[in-house]
Amino acid sequence: MKPTVFSGVQPSGIPTIGNYIGAMKGFVDLQDDYDTTYCIVNQHAITVYQDPKTLSQSTRMIAALYVAIGLDPNKSIIFIQSDVPAHAQAAWLVLCQTGLGELERMTQFKDKAQKQELVSAGLLSYPALMVADIVLYDAQYIPVGEDQKQHLELTRNFVDRFNNRYGKDLLVKPEPMIPSSGGRILSLQDPTSKMSKSDVNTRGFISMLDEPKTIIKKIKSAVTDSVGEVNYDKENQAAISNLLDIYSALSGRSIDDLVNEYHSAGYGKFKSDVADQVVAVLEPIQQKYYRLIDNQELTDILIDGAKAANETATRTLSRMERAIGLTYKPSLYV
Ligand code: TYM
Description:
This protein has 334 residues and is mostly helical. It has two domains: 4-182 and 295-333, Rossmann fold (3-Layer(aba) Sandwich), CATH 3.40.50; 202-290, Tyrosyl-Transfer RNA Synthetase (Orthogonal Bundle), CATH 1.10.240. It is 54% helix and 7% strand. Strands 1-2-3 form a three-stranded parallel β-sheet. The longest helix has 29 residues, at 296-324. It is globular. The structure holds ligand 1. Ligand 1 binds next to strand 1, helix 1 and helix 7.
């Protein structure tokens, strides 16, 4: 049996090259050697207000992007979270075994809460839903960017607690898989914060559907520094190091190799080559995306994915319920 992988992306906007480099690209690389399940986590997105029409469009958009980047429905299960009721059901079980303090400590919660007029209880509970997503598929490895590390730690603690209370090895304890470089792509306008698909400053990110000329413009106007040399120095040259991370992840070339070539080439030439590389990777993805987005083929993939996901998730949910005692006659359910 292959080791199991689960991950997801929120339809809270168009994914950026940060999402692609930090997580989605890895989804594709894992398909052959792992048993992979990838979700469009639309129930996570509603922890902050989403316009209903936009949310439903974005949900399908992520699904189309999954396939466009190379996820193969014959190798990976691709599905929408709200098509599998077990996620919300299991999240309740997780919430009842999670300390309020644990949730309040989450840095993503604190960051996001600051930006909201209404801080919903869902925003606080969000990591419990993520725990549910992961444990339902007995996932061993979770490809994510660095910003999800704390949520993964919470998941691991939850699994320990659940297994201690209810039975050894009931749930699988997952490991994060974070890329060694590119796990945290920074905003092009503010290299102290991460690139985010919901950034109000659209020049800070490159969306996976940005047109080539927009990509070139955004990279040309990315902030740099006054050093004038291309070095990989995250402390003193964060913006240039960020562009190196992007270039390296998208070209497969090592950072050292790139620094050698561009050290004294000037920022203009460096940026122009980074932009060409981003366009070279995104253009074919975009062509495939536009062929898929309104196609019945995509709907069929999601229907099949939901069926397969429902089977696994329902089985794990009832295992959890039985362990907790949420059955009046356990023998009927075995
Ligand atoms: P989301 O939708 O914010 O981001 C999707 C994935 O992209 C990674 N990422 C980044 N990586 C590098 N640089 C960046 N600037 C950057 N921005 C985002 C994220 O780390 C993530 O891997 N909570 C998750 C979704 C989720 C999930 C799950 C993930 C829900 N349930 C279960 C794994 C397993 C999130 O908000 O991702």
